[in-house]
Design goal:
Rossmann fold; 8-stranded mixed sheet; globular
Length: 243
């Protein structure tokens, strides 16, 4: 009898986020924090895309002719902007409820996106020019296998962008004590012990055969809200390339 394929999906995590599917696109719902983060994340992504491929920062469709994969896509908060930037987009998520919500919203938005339920292990031989996975690695069972899967999905010359909370006293205070404690983030969303430091994540990325080309902090300013900075204490991005 064949054994089940190895997966990095945590069923409890999938159930937790699947329960939030109906509110994913509501900027005042359970995913409100993601809506606040999204413009900053997109700004960083656009910067890295333009830098990697030497593109015109004024272009509306810098990803025209390119393929993009978003892993842990939820209901498509990142997939839809990537499609509008011109990419042929695939989004995968462990929660079938999220994929159903993503399909419905993409139809309403007039966008064609290939949404699939599952994990990075189910992609087979598919390869993509751009691979993103934002605020996801802290929810998987095996970060090293997960990063290896992401790296394996990149084309030669491809670009990968990850983001995740740092394992610091500040992240515990901001995301769990305050964020979850006050209901700004749904309770049970984070396990601080599963957070990775930048050094730990970079080690995993390099072990997977990629080259790290940029690290940047995602911090919070009382005056401006979430901003890109050099302070990686709360949350951070890592950008890497293949070849």
């Amino acid at each position: 009898m064949a054994s089940d394929p190895v997966t990095t999906i945590d069923p409890e995590e999938a159930a937790h986020f699947g329960a939030m599917a109906a509110e994913w696109w509501d900027p005042k719902g359970s995913s409100a924090m993601l809506h606040r983060l999204n413009p900053v994340r997109l700004g960083y992504l656009r910067e890295r895309i333009d830098a990697h491929w030497g593109l015109d920062g004024a272009s509306f469709t810098p990803l025209a002719g390119k393929t993009a994969l978003d892993v842990g896509c939820g209901a498509g908060l990142l997939c839809e902007p990537l499609a509008r930037l011109g990419a042929t987009v695939t989004g995968i998520d462990a929660a079938a409820e999220n994929i159903a919500a993503a399909h419905a919203h993409a139809r309403q938005s007039g966008l064609t996106i290939d949404y699939r339920t599952g994990g990075i292990e189910g992609l087979g031989a598919a390869r993509f020019d751009l691979v993103t996975s934002l605020e996801v690695i802290e929810h998987v069972t095996d970060p090293a296998a997960f990063v290896a899967g992401l790296a394996g999905a990149l084309t030669a010359g491809g670009l990968m962008v990850l983001s995740t909370p740092n394992r610091t006293a500040l992240s515990r205070l901001a995301m769990i004590t305050i964020g979850e404690g006050t209901g700004q983030i749904p309770r049970g969303t984070h396990d601080w012990d599963k957070f990775l430091t930048p050094e730990e994540l970079i080690t995993l990325i390099e072990a997977a055969g990629l080259t790290v080309v940029d690290t940047r902090g995602l911090s919070f300013s009382v005056a401006k809200g979430f901003v890109i900075s050099d302070d990686m204490t709360l949350d951070y991005f890592v950008t890497a390339t293949h070849g």
